[in-house]
Design a protein that fits this description.
This protein has three domains: 121 residues, Rossmann fold (3-Layer(aba) Sandwich); 78 residues, NadA-like (Rossmann fold, 3-Layer(aba) Sandwich); 78 residues, 3-Layer(aba) Sandwich (Rossmann fold). Strand 5, helix 7 and strand 6 form a beta-alpha-beta unit. 48% of the residues are buried. It is an alpha/beta fold. Strands 2-1-3-4 form a four-stranded parallel β-sheet, sandwiched between helices. The radius of gyration is 20 Å and the shape is globular. Helices cover 44% and strands 15% of the residues. Helix 2 packs parallel to helix 14. Catalyzes the condensation of iminoaspartate with dihydroxyacetone phosphate to form quinolinate. One of its GO terms (molecular function) is 4 iron, 4 sulfur cluster binding. InterPro entries: NadA (IPR003473), NadA_sf (IPR036094), Quinolinate_synth_type2 (IPR023066). One of its GO terms (biological process) is 'de novo' NAD+ biosynthetic process from L-aspartate. Its cofactor is [4Fe-4S] cluster.
Length: 324
Amino acid sequence: MSAMLPSGASLYDRVQRVIPPIEWPTFLDDIEAILVLKRQRNAVVLAHNYQTPEIFHCVADIVGDSLALARKAMAVEAEVIVLAGVHFMAETAKLLNPEKTVLIPDLKAGCSLADSITAADVRLLRQRYPGVPVVTYVNTSVEVKAESDICCTSGNAKAVVESLGVSQVIMLPDEFLAQNIAAQTDVEIIAWKGHCEVHERFTPADIRQLREDHPGVTVLAHPECPPEVVAEADFSGSTAAMSDYVGSQKPPRVVLMTECSMSDNVAVEHPDVEFIRPCNLCPHMKRITLANIRSALEQNRHEVRIEPEIAGRARLAVERMLDV
């Protein structure tokens, strides 16, 4: 490690609990190049909680869940934003920063939820349920957002639904998130049948086995998990809420029922907590790497562009969410 640049050495100190020493040299060249490129291009990297630790803790300037990234993107002063996440997140960053260059390192970094519904589907729902407002999860394409009244995230969905002051809403596309929110509110929720390919795989049996294998473990579940999984858990919340729970409650042993890298990233902040890791990887999040973040900055690829008419309507739905 003696040959490391000082910045590299200090960064490894931060992630040494989750990145083995033998792996670190394979990351270092890209990390150092990205740090230089960010300065040269007046760029920032926004990284979702599901990014791997070498991205999340070593090159990202702003990190968080979808809601945090959306809010913080509005205050970015840099000329270039690299979104280390999936495509809908890059679109949201572009909506909120129309004059900035927004780059997504891999165009194939998609989302099963975003793929589960189209703008035409939303128009048909409006015909079937005239006058019922449409609340759309941010895990959707910009075209779907443009057909919606307001967006939400897993962290603010209940507040958004109740802010409308109506007795019935359409909530799409995540069926399980809609069902979990419906259990917390008197508002009737009409759901779509989209699912997250990561969270839908968790089962109540998984939790029972974890409790048997790891006595005393605290189970935290993302609200994209099926309702029966949420019912078995000790706490359910967005990735930000789960991270805050670990920080405030300090459970001796914890399991996060969500994407794999989340546990690694939270573990860096809480060395006194033991993390049990049932691993469901998001193949789309894992398309983002240090190498393609570097390429994005070097080659200005792949720039996110949105048609102005669609952007205007979609931006309104996102801004309404941010006002709640």
